[in-house]
Structure formats: structure tokens, C-alpha cells
Amino acid sequence: MLPATDPPNVPNTLVAGSHALRVIKQLKRVENATRKCFQPATRNQSLPSPSKRRKLDSLQERPYNLSFPPVPQLSKDPSQPSTILYLAYGSNLSSETFQGRRGIHPISQTNVVVPELSMTFDLAGLSYLEPCFANTRYRSEPPPTSSSYSNPPSSSDTEKADTPDYRKTRWHKGLVGVVYEVTPTDYFHIIATEGGGASYQDVLVTCYTLSPSTSVVPSLPTNEPFKAHTLYSPITPPGTKPPESGGRFSRPDPNYAQPSARYLKLITDGADEHGLPQEYKTYLHQLRPYRITSQKQRLGAFVFGMIWLPFLSLVIGLSNRYADERGKAPKWLVVLMGWIFSGMWASYDGFFKGLFGDGERTAGE
């Protein structure tokens, strides 16, 4: 299985680059799914739920260190779990994305609510085209990673109310998603297709199963909890150093941007496929996508794309060629990605937004 040792520091110069690599993976994923994006979603009922024994075993697990992952292999110790419970949300709810394009083959799956997490859209993307992507945020204190597991949080930590400035939405309950049971090989593939773990930590979160008949998400679930791994990317506020175990590129107001219509469609389709609670699906369908509302914005999107898309295509090609089997790009390429990504957003903030209009949020919303 994966080691549970302390990760090394991530140099500041690699923060924007590792974030850019993650964004490039997201852009490729959305683009690949575009052809089928507007087809009706069908209910996914083909997989069983994780066994009760597997859920109990998860309570004894620890977070994994993603810094130097070994060749994936099943544990030879019969007392240790030979599979990984992975929490998916956002576009990973879509079977076309998660199981189709990414080639993941889950053993089992179950719908869950995670009271300690909320879904955000604060992962900066490509202005005018794909302004932002889904991410997670802790509603109170973040849980321990592999470097701090000696002091686990108390149960009261996950019951604290949302911070007032969390996000301008009406959803104030926990994250609703799907826990997949996957092999270590598939989990490494998930890490690789999310950007190689360069800006991620593996964390364990407390999940509560949602039955297929659940229509209203419970604020404080009372059924038996279990643990699942998920990939957490801590935000790096402007002007501050990233956390010791990694950080990501941050916009001045990470709650400002709106996702594109086609990206939201992947999420709502996935929610329909898995039969998530109607309350949560209603919330997702009420999210407003970014819309271009003026000719100036359309012109700005065209010019912005003409300038920056060739650079993104270049680094995508270089990433495909030079990334290793774990999805990790060489340091020089990560630095190059960081320069391009930082330059792209600097040009938007300093020139495009003022001349052509807002490329992150629909005018008037």
C-alpha cells in the first residue's frame, strides 16, 4: 500500500506550476467530455456498496504520503485492506469522466455526505472559457495529514458552523459525493490524472452513507460513519507562503468565479446518474454558470484564446511526453507551466478584464 510518512516541503516556485498542471488535466477532461456533455444522464446502479467489514477497517487507516509513491501493489498482509475507499465529487461524479475517459474500474460505490467538507469552485482555470473548477474546503479545522496524524480532531470539529465568508451559495450542509472502492493501482491512476499529487495531500474524511431513498441531506447524520481518502489542495492566500505540504495558486477572491455551463453539466449529470438526494440535485441545478453577455467579452475571449491557448497546447504536449508513469512532470516543466499560468492571469487582471470585461463572473451577478 502507500507509505504514511512525512512529506517534504514544496518550493514556492512550484506552487503555480503544480496548480497549472492540475488545471491542464481538468481542461483536458472537460474537453474530452464535451461531445457527450449534453446527452441525458442515466442512473448508475451497476455496482454494490462497500462491505460493512471494509467500512469498519477504514476507521483504522491513516492518510498516505503522495510525495514518493511506490509502484502500486496490493498489500500482502491479510489484516490490512487491499483496496482504497476514495471520495469523489465534482466532475468525478460523471461515469463518462471517471470510469470512461479516465479508465477507473471501481469495485463498489456508495453515496455519502461528508459533514466536515463543502464543495467550492475556487480552483482558478481559464478566464472567459473555463473560469474555475470544483474543489473542497473544510468547514472548520482541516483534519490531519500524514505529518500530523498523532493529534486527530475531536468529533466537535466537524460539527462547527460554516464560516460567514465561505461562499455566496445557499448550501450550508456537508459535501455530498460518492465513495468508490478502488484498487491501489487505480488510486495511483487517479492521482496521476489529477496532476500527479504535486499540489495535493491525501486526507481521510468521515463519511456517512446516504440510502437511495434519501431526499433531504441530513445536517448531522446519525448512522455509522466510515473513513475515505480524498485529495485535498490547500489554498495559498496571496502574499503568503504555501503550507509545508503543498499549496495552490490563488485568485484575490477565490469565491468570485463561476464555472462554465459545460463543466456544471458534468456535475449535474453525475448527480443524476448516482441518484444523489433531490435536495442536493436541486441546489446543483440552481448554480449559475458563467455567461458571456457582451460583444466585447466575446472579442476578449477570442483574443485571449488566440494568445494563450497555443502555450497551453504546448505544455499539454510536453506533459504528455515527459510526465512519468505517476503523472508527475519534471521540475523544469512544472516551472514553465507556472510561468505561463501566472502570466496568463496577470494579462487578464492587468489588461483583458479592464478592456474586454469580466471573464470570471457573469455581469450583474
From TrEMBL:
Gene3D superfamilies (UniProt xref): Gamma-glutamyl cyclotransferase-like
Organism: Cladonia borealis
Residues annotated for substrate binding in this entry: Y86, L87, A88, Y89, G90, S91, Y263
Compositionally biased residues, Low complexity: 146-156
Region (Disordered): 139-166, 232-253
Entry keyword Ligase: no
Principal EC category: lyase
Protein name: gamma-glutamylcyclotransferase
